[in-house]
Amino acid sequence: MLTAATFARTHRAYLTLSAVIFCGYVGVGSTSPFQTLYATSLGASLNQVALVTGVFSTLAMAAGLLWGRLADRLRRRKPFVVGGVAALALIHLATAYVPTWQLLVPLRALEGAASGAYQVASMALMGHLLHGQPARGRMVSGYRMSGSLAFSVAIVFSGWLAQTVGFRGSYLFASGVYVVALLIALNVLEHTGNRGSPEITRARAAPPRDQTNTAVDSVSHAASGSHAPGFVAIMRGPLGPLLVLAVAFGLPFAAVYSVWPIWVANVLGHGRAVYSQLWGLAAFVEVPCMLLAGYLADRVGRRRTFSLGLTFFALVYLAYFLAPPLPGLIAAQVLRGFAFAFFTATALTMAIELAPPEARGRAAGLYSSANGLAQISGNWIGAPLAAAIGFRSFYAAAAVAVLCAALYAQVALRAGPSRGEA
Fold it and tell me: CB neighbours of 254 closer than 8 A, spacing ≥ 6?
């Protein structure tokens, strides 16, 4: 049976990584929702905002593949976590003092590279920790829930901070938070002794209803001890449809929320504080919904929970299309919290599952890069498209795109025992 020492090390590593992601999302929530507003305050036009947002996604995508491959080759993930958060602390400190929007471009590029290292390594480490755990969905959801809780608190606080002392205060606050994340990351355990160990194998409980877990574990065990598959082999396997869906969801998501702050704060005239409160409301709702999503993913299946999240997002974009008054926006943000939790928790769980242990770095890099590709495309086209066709038509197009993704998920994630449910 599982030894007390192994359990204690695994538990400590899980809590440490959760604390790191908590701090990371405090930093993200303190600044990323205000990137477009910060750029415009420094003189950037709506089209120039696309450059500021797009360069981050471009570097994050490329860095995800690079860091994932290096992490697998070195068999080390902790240095990438530590180095990533350290770099983010310095980058946000520098961003607080830029005099012009043009200087945001190289800083956002560096931020993308640093974020890629931290996110890919953290994801690979979590997959390592949860190898063989029968309640992976709930544990991954709990891990990701800490990020949602941090983001919800940070965006409301930083909205008040930006309204009171300006955007510089938000970036200085984020820099300090990343320093705290660095100190915690230094205590991350690289090895806990549970990866594929006999103790974990014997301790496995009966699989949940969703047979994805059983099939993926079989794939992982079959590959154990063999040469790690490359990017192409991983993409041709069970992870492939998830990567397609990550892009199909992420592109309209990035496009919408690259200009959503401008729409709420400036076009609708609600201001920075109300905008941050609306975004924070959605993040607060995500917190309990992450646990609910993990429970549903383990009990009723990944595909159903995943598709439900996509369908909810189509309804959110439809609500934006209707341009409701403030109470309607509040309702839309509550639904957005459900939608984001259901999609994100389930997608992250599947991304951790759908690769053998030796290739978790590459799989994490591919998943991160798929999200990066979606962000690149969405950030580049979001502002110009909204300016060209208007916000209402823009939101209607996003709703249709995500609804099509939900239909694809029903088909693609059903094909084969390793991609869907029994």
Answer: 57, 374, 375, 376, 377, 378, 379, 382
**H or E element: which one contains 109?**
helix 104-129
224 phi-psi bin (left φ>0, alpha ψ -120 to 50, beta other): beta
The boundaries of the domain holding residue 369 are 11-191+206-412
Report the interhelical angle of 78-95 vs 167-185 (nearest 10°): 160
228 part of a folded domain: yes
* Closest by Cα among 364, 353, 290 to 138: 290
Phi-psi region of 177 (alpha: psi -120 to 50; beta: other; left: phi over 0): alpha
Residues in CB range of 84: below 8 A, 6 or more apart: 114, 115, 116, 117, 118, 119, 121
Which residues of the chain fall short of a pLDDT of 70?
1-8, 10, 131-136, 191-228, 272, 356, 414-422
**How many structural domains are present in the chain?**
1
